[in-house]
Design a protein that fits this description.
Blueprint lengths: L1 H62 L12 E3 L5 E7 L1 E3 L5 E3 L18 E14 L5 E14 L5
Antiparallel strand pairs: 1-2, 2-5, 3-4, 5-6
């Protein structure tokens, strides 16, 4: 009888040890899943910010259809979809004081011209960027930039 009672005490001891180990494993898994959820949420915010920046870029380009890009003479800022969009005519030249100034002019086209004379068609270039802040405390910033080249007749503008 004495050996049977002793064994019951040993089983209780091992059961308590096993319970403590399983509790630690459960707590570690719960903390790990919480971290995974935060990382997935941050990735989702970045994807949303990219969609907003792309939408702002597309909205600005759609609003500047026709010859508006070719006649743009200075840096222009817009605010669409909780973002900031900037249109900058190119090229930028040194202002002599270490900065850059906008000096829009007709330049040779990067793509092939359809005209028979290469000096008949020139191009104007504009850089369009769309920036969005995102994340906790708006610590993240995402900027999408696109270059636009619009054909113009040589002699128009500059």
């Amino acid at each position: 009888m004495k050996s049977l009672q002793r064994q019951r005490g040993v089983v209780l001891f091992f059961a308590l040890i096993l319970l403590v180990v399983m509790t630690f494993i459960g707590v570690a898994l719960a903390l790990n899943s919480g971290q995974s959820l935060r990382m997935a949420g941050a990735g989702s915010e970045r994807v949303d910010a990219k969609a907003v920046a792309d939408g702002g870029l597309a909205a600005v380009l759609n609003g500047m259809s026709g010859g508006n890009l070719a006649t743009l003479m200075q840096r222009t800022e817009r605010s669409l979809f909780n973002g900031a969009q900037v249109l900058t005519p190119l090229p930028l030249v040194d202002d002599g004081a270490g900065g850059l100034k906008v000096l829009p002019q007709n330049v040779s086209c990067k793509r092939s011209a359809n005209a028979s004379d290469t000096t008949l068609i020139r191009c104007r270039r504009v850089e369009v960027s769309s920036s969005v802040v995102y994340g906790r405390d708006n610590l993240g910033q995402l900027t999408v930039t696109e270059g636009v080249e619009q054909q113009v007749l040589n002699g128009s503008g500059s």
